TrEMBL record:
The lineage of its organism: Bacteria, Pseudomonadati, Bacteroidota, Saprospiria, Saprospirales. It comes from the Bacteria. One of its GO terms (molecular function) is metal ion binding. GO terms for cellular component: cytosol. It is an enzyme of class 2 (transferase). This is Galactokinase. It comes from Portibacter lacus.
Length: 379
């Protein structure tokens, strides 16, 4: 991202020197489809980010210029309505702040970034968190980065996908060279060293659009909620899937459907894999870390049913390569990216890209993952 260009464009349009804020994308090492059931996750913020150049205005208007999609609009703070779909995250944020009775005035904001859309690295959460952080910083609103996690999550949930809080937490609370072991039961967390020796994280973007993502994502949540309700009726002490383990879930096998049982099995196993992954990374046991990634993928594909042909293909191809410790689909699923842990390699991935193109007629983008700070003021 060229920050000078963002700044000079801002000055050309608004004739003021802006402050600049950065909200990164995120990857998740492991712990997929667990956050909304009080589970464990292991994400970290990355270099790709959305940047917000902004200044206060003396009126009640918000002038928004989104450079990457070449759109602009004006929202009046006294009449916030969703008129254009691309503004939904901004309107979501303004509604949440209004509900919480935060008061602030108008501002000019110019936005640009280098998070590829649809790659499953949370461009929408970066946009929502960054917009909130900009308002907080311009108007000195009295809330913390942690508060932004919860506000952003509410704002995004209001737009349709009933997501968990992993993405916002990683974007707001992450630190360079650390992964966050986050417990979504109480949102306590530990920062873990994220330095793999002679190996690096990569993303393989399938370039498959997640058409099914919204409905199917909400359906997976519903499967788990319904199963929990049935189990809770039988045993009121179980109030969250987190209260179950591999043995105890078997006690309810006759009460719930096969599909529900599979979903819970994924959840229970995935939490265990997160804890094991932390141990393996800490001891640099990358062979074992890789096995966990493959296991996670298999579970997401077969038990949670959130993968797709293209993601399965990429993981299977990587599994044949000596340079790959392990790989799995990442994020909500049905498209987006595979995350992989690779040994340092000279391989240019030409053959992999070609076989992917020959099979699906799609390009595959390969993106090295660089760990960076969470949300921050740049200037
Ligand atoms: C999406 C959601 F936004 C996250 O909260 C999480 O549930 C993830 O899918 C799956 O692990 O990114």
């Amino acid at each position: 991202m060229n920050l000078e260009e963002l700044e000079s464009k801002f000055i050309a349009v608004f004739n003021q020197e802006p402050s600049i804020f950065r909200a990164p994308g995120r990857v998740n090492i492991i712990g997929e489809h667990t956050d909304y059931n009080q589970g464990l996750v292991l994400p970290f913020p990355i270099k790709q980010a959305i940047y917000f150049a902004a200044t206060k205005r003396s009126d009640r208007e918000i002038h928004i210029h989104a450079l990457d999609i070449q759109k602009d609009t004006i929202i009046n703070l006294d009449d916030v309505k969703l008129l254009e779909p691309w503004t939904r995250f901004f309107v979501g944020v303004l509604n949440v702040l209004a509900e919480d009775k935060f008061s602030f005035g108008g501002f000019n904001i110019m936005i640009n970034g280098d998070i590829p859309f649809g790659a499953g690295i949370s461009s929408s959460s970066a946009l929502t968190c960054g917009f909130l952080y900009t308002i907080k910083s311009l108007y000195n609103l009295n809330y913390t980065k942690r508060d932004i996690v919860f506000l952003a999550s509410r704002a995004e949930n209001g737009t349709g996908v009933n997501g968990g809080k992993m993405d916002q937490f990683s974007i707001c609370m992450g630190e360079e060279n650390k992964a966050i072991l986050l417990d979504c039961k109480d949102y306590s967390y530990t920062l873990i060293e994220n330095n793999t020796q002679n190996a690096s994280w990569f993303l393989f973007n399938s370039n498959v659009e997640h058409n099914l993502a919204e409905t199917e994502y909400n359906d997976r949540r519903a499967d788990c909620d319904e199963a929990l309700q049935i189990i809770n009726q039988k045993n009121p002490e179980i109030t969250s899937l987190r209260d179950l383990d591999t043995e105890s879930v078997n006690l309810y096998i006759d009460l719930i459907s096969k599909k529900q049982f599979d979903r819970i099995t994924h959840y229970v196993d995935e939490n265990k894999r997160v804890l094991q992954m932390v141990k393996d990374l800490e001891s640099n046991n990358l062979e074992n870390a890789g096995i966990l990634l493959y296991e996670s993928h298999q579970s997401l594909a077969e038990l949670y049913e959130v993968s797709c042909e293209e993601l399965d293909f990429i993981v299977a191809k990587l599994k044949e390569e000596d340079y790959c410790y392990g790989a799995r689909m990442m994020g909500g699923g049905f498209g987006g990216s595979v995350i992989a842990l690779l040994k340092d390699t000279e391989n240019d991935f030409k053959d992999l890209k070609k076989s992917y193109f020959d099979s699906f007629g799609l390009e595959m983008d390969i993106i090295p993952v660089v760990s960076k700070n969470g949300i921050e003021k740049i200037k």
